[in-house]
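User: What would this chain look like folded?
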Amino acid sequence: MKEQKFEDKLKELEVLNNKIKSGELALDETVVCFEKGMKIAKELEKEINSIERKVEILISEGSREFKDFQE
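Assistant: Here's the prediction, encoded as structure tokens.
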């Protein structure tokens, strides 16, 4: 199965949230949507943390290269 893009996961989370907020779901359907939403939220959090680490590394490397250039 092809992994969803970040934006697609975010959209799916929004859809699930709207379904839950509508109040039109039965309790068991609400719980299923909530569980699925929590799973997606955790996946998104992992992706965001990974991206933050990459950006920090890139900034750190860029800072070192800039210092080397100044010397």
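The chain has a mean pLDDT of 89. If you want, I can go into more detail on any region.
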